[in-house]
Design a protein that fits this description.
Layout (H helix, E strand, L loop, with lengths): L1 E11 L21 H23 L5 E3 L1 H14 L2 H10 L8 H18 L5 E12 L6 H6 L4 E4 L5 H15 L17 E14 L10 E6 L5 E18 L4 E7 L5 E7 L7 H8 L2 H8 L6 E8 L1 E7 L1 H7 L22 E13 L3 E5 L16 E4 L4 E7 L4 E8 L5
Parallel strand pairs: 1-13, 3-4, 10-14
Antiparallel strand pairs: 1-5, 1-12, 2-16, 3-5, 5-13, 6-7, 7-8, 7-10, 8-9, 9-15, 11-12, 12-13, 15-16
Length: 413
């Protein structure tokens, strides 16, 4: 299966002034916990973001990459100053003790380690961040040096259409053509000054593949009154399976080859109309940790899950405003760490993601309840049949990161 996704922020006009990042950057001592704090804040932001997106589209399928959204906003945070910087720090759940010097160091170490640890024999995960700046924007020398790999100068003013094509081609290249034509024709104008972007691609092979000959069309219950036929993949094998009362869900882990990545499926009781929403609302970092870190024994489970492909565009601007980072889109936006020019602000934000789940694996590019299925002595084998709406995440174990997440509600959508 494959997943890819892209988040792009569009910015027009220019800005204010500041140090890079502090009056004396060298006075900041490196904190050995900075990378751990980066991951912790990222996870808190991820779950908060998921809840806000579900509120905006409570009846539709959801698929997005919180990892991509976070890293695009992280670029904005590095470039921001004043109140915009403080607003982003609060919304991104960056720890008070984590200054920009240590955060930048953690960001760079994480980026390098991902390149080194990407084992193509097991899975592939590629993430790239870019700050596409207009050649007329006076970027401060310190940012040019600190983010030399991220910065790419384009001539938005004289060649807006060519610049759009260049960014779209970069996105397509990183996501292996899973996300094409991300930016529409009117996205880049002569007034555009800055585009912040992240593109992510994941391809993982199931540790235990689903035999294709067992895939059959069976009913998926969209609601109590509507059902539709879906291709279900089936297998019986040894998996980590549990029932979690706090989340109100049966939970199944489907590991990818290499065991650093897994898909977790959270299935609420069929009888519970708001089961999916309750799971998302109750999914805290502590509760997720109790799921992914619990050292429970594998058990024999009969698994049936839908085979599906979903591609989604998300109105991320509305979500970010709900997360209190709407300052990015105001004339008061402060990007003084990036440039001393005045007036840079975001016009819009675009997010697009795609996932394909089949018998081989996954490709991607960018709740409280009383349980009727629980007993004191579980029957062997257990049965996990995801034939009604469920929540799913793709989790990276070494960094405690959720790379992709979604809700599968309706095959017809």
């Amino acid at each position: 299966m494959l997943k890819s996704l892209v988040l792009i922020f569009l910015i027009s006009t220019t800005l204010v002034s500041s140090q890079c990042f502090y009056k004396d950057d060298s006075s900041k001592k490196l904190d050995s916990q900075s990378r751990e704090l980066l991951y912790k804040g990222q996870l808190e932001f991820t779950l908060h973001l998921f809840n806000e997106i579900n509120k905006l589209v409570p009846d539709d399928n959801i698929f997005f990459s919180p990892f991509s959204v976070y890293h695009s906003l992280l670029l904005a945070y590095f470039a921001a100053g004043g109140q915009t910087e403080q607003s982003l720090k609060h919304s991104l759940k960056i720890a008070d003790k984590l200054d920009k010097i240590n955060l930048m160091t953690a960001y760079k170490v994480d980026k390098r380690s991902r390149v080194m640890n990407n084992n193509s024999d097991s899975y592939e995960f590629t993430s790239a961040n870019k700050m596409f700046v207009d050649r007329g924007l006076n970027v401060r020398q310190c940012l040019l040096e600190l983010l030399s790999e991220e910065l790419d100068a384009l001539n938005f003013h004289d060649n807006p259409f060519e610049s759009r094509d260049y960014i779209n081609e970069w996105v397509a290249r990183v996501t292996k053509n899973n996300i094409k034509d991300l930016l529409p024709k009117d996205a880049i104008t002569r007034a555009t000054k800055l585009v912040l972007a992240n593109a992510a691609y994941f391809k993982g092979v199931w540790a235990s593949k689903f035999p294709s000959e067992r895939t059959k069309k069976e009913p998926f219950f969209v609601s109590e009154t509507r059902q539709t036929l879906v291709h279900f993949m089936k297998q019986k094998g040894t998996f980590h399976y549990m029932v979690n009362d706090d989340l109100g869900a049966q939970i199944l882990e489907l590991p990818y080859k290499g065991n650093d990545m897994s898909m977790y499926i959270f299935l609420p009781p069929y009888s519970m109309k708001e089961g999916v929403t309750n799971i998302i609302a109750n999914l805290t970092p502590e509760r997720l940790a109790s799921v992914v870190e619990e050292n429970y024994m594998g058990r024999e489970v009969v698994v049936e899950i839908p085979k599906f492909t979903i591609e989604r565009s998300l109105s991320i601007k509305r979500v970010l405003e709900a997360l209190d980072v709407g300052d990015l889109f105001n004339v008061t936006a402060d990007f003084s760490t990036l440039t001393e020019d005045h007036g840079v602000l975001f016009d819009d934000a675009v997010h697009k993601a795609k996932i394909q789940i089949d018998e081989e694996g996954t490709v991607a590019a960018a709740a409280t309840a009383i349980f009727g299925f629980r007993s004191s002595r579980p029957v062997d084998p257990s049965v996990f049949i995801a034939n009604f709406p469920f929540v799913y995440i793709i989790y990276e174990r070494p960094t405690n990161s959720v790379l992709f997440m979604g809700v599968y509600r309706d095959p017809k959508k």
